[in-house]
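Recall that a protein's primary structure is simply its ordered list of amino acids. Everything else, from secondary elements to tertiary packing, is in principle encoded there. The following example makes that idea concrete.
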Amino acid sequence: MKSFGRPVADRRQLLTKSLWIGIWLVFLAGPVQDLLRAGHGSAATVLGWLGLAAFVFCYLTLVFRYTSKAFDWRVVHVSFGALLALAVALSFAFGTPWLGLFVYVAVSAGAVLPLRHAAWAIPAVTGVMILIGLRTDSVADLLGSLAVLTVLVGFAMTGVRELVRTTIQLRQARATVAQLAANEERLRLARDLHDLLGHSLSLITLKSELAGRMLPADPDKAAQQVADIEQVSRQALVDVREAVSGYRRRTLAGELAGARTALTAAGVEADVPLQAPAVLPAEEGETALAWALREAVTNVVRHSGARRCTVVFTSRHTLDGPVVELSVEDDGRGGPAASQGNGLTGLTERVEAVGGVLDVGPGDRRGFRLTARVPLDRGEAPASGA
């Protein structure tokens, strides 16, 4: 579930979580039927409905507020104590149909109590349920199955609780890593600009001062200093342009991370390598492969209707030398329309410009496959298939 461990953000997530809550409320069917059909007196029926409403309120307050949040222990202890007291009182007063309330007590214990406390609280809640159930004859079968269910559901909820919190921590860690990466990139850019421009600007300043002092007495030497300033400035401009073009260059590592994010956000199962191949072509070749991956994933997300997308890198020997092959295959609609468009036309030109080949066509799973082959540098040996 994409919203797992997150607060409700839209109507769809609200509906999904409401259905999840509704499924768990199935154990209230016994108490509701008992109030509607058992013929209790008017006062007992009213008290039963009020007690049941208070029980549900305490349960929802515990489970769906504190499963993924920091504890307010006073509220948790009071709510859990009230929940247990209501379950005991209602089941003792109304009989066997109300024993299902202890399932919610066990779920609450697993959801909000620390693991060391939940480990004994869940069996204790089950024991209380058994003691109350033994007052009534002919409930052995029901009591046995309900006791097992209470224990299993309670401990299962401890696992769900830890999974929710782990998911939240992973999202927070991912955001922190992204922020640290951005900070590191800014620091690297600052260092590179300082290294590139610091010396050049210092030299320009020095020669400008020197030219200013020489200008009245020796115009020819001042003109030479001005020419040197122009040469240094042009070289600094070239260095800055090269640095900026390096920052703008597409890399396979960046595009692989973007592909996983885009496919997952679109609901497509992403079988994407975590890292780029160890052996890559020259800078222009890697950029061409990065653009091919980007265009292929964009087509999968926008046009394919696929449920799964697979990205594979393979190093091969061919008659023309070693090449790196990128294959992106989906199980979507495919068809002739998938291989048409300006994006693929421009991509073909980009790959061919570095001596590569781009193939598009149907895949093995009725979908669409894009394959880009780019030659390695002659001095490099290909790695084994990834």
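The chain has a mean pLDDT of 78. The two ends are 30 Å apart (CA to CA).
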